[in-house]
Amino acid sequence: MTVAEEGEVEARTVAFDLADEVPPLVAVRRWAGEALSDLGDDDVTDCVLVVTELVTNAYDHGAAPRRVALHRDRDPCRIRVEVHDGSRGRVRVGRSRLGGHRGRGMVIVSQIAAEWGVRQQGTGKTVWAEIVCQETDRTR
Questions:
Q1: Residue 8: which CATH number?
Q2: Against a cut of 0.90, is the pTM above it?
Q3: What is the total count of domains within the chain?
Q4: Mean pLDDT in residue range 56-75
């Protein structure tokens, strides 16, 4: 796993290249939490949950290579979570080929995110979700 950072004070992107084998999700959550540590607790929790769901889907339904990136705009405060994987398979909301007790990840993402979507690319797809920060949390 490697981490990259680019950008200016007003906009920033951090990325995390994911291993071929499933990484401990606690490491991915910790990375996202640290990257967004200056946000309010509710915003960090929302973003970490979206990252967790999208990364889990990339391993359950996607293929290598996988990468997660956080794009942040500060004014207004918006976080765009992007998870790329090497599969061009469709994203299905509320349905999973892994069993009846699965398939809620994108339902959760759609409830938290202001908007989300899928961008098909020659090397696979990128599933993205955009979270608008709560103004009351921006006191740190």
A1: 3.30.565.10
A2: no
A3: 1
A4: 92
Q: Which domain holds residue 70?
A: 3-137
pLDDT one-digit tens code per residue, 77-119: 999 999 999 999 888 776 655 555 566 788 899 999 999 999 9
Residue 66 in contact with residue 84, Cβ under 8 Å?
yes
Please give the C-alpha separations between residue 100 and each of 14, 22, 95, 112, 121, in angstroms, as whole numbers. 35, 22, 8, 22, 30
100 neighbors 109 (Cβ within 8 angstroms):
no
Query: What's the Cα-to-Cα distance from 32 to each of 10, 42, 59, 90, 93, rounded to whole Å?
Result: 18, 14, 17, 25, 24
Residues 94, 76: Cα–Cα separation, whole Å = 31
Residue 76 burial by Cβ neighbours in a 10 Å radius (0-12, 13-18, 19+): exposed
* Best CA proximity match to 48, nearest among 62, 28, 73: 28
Question: Residue with structure tokens 């993402």?
Answer: 109
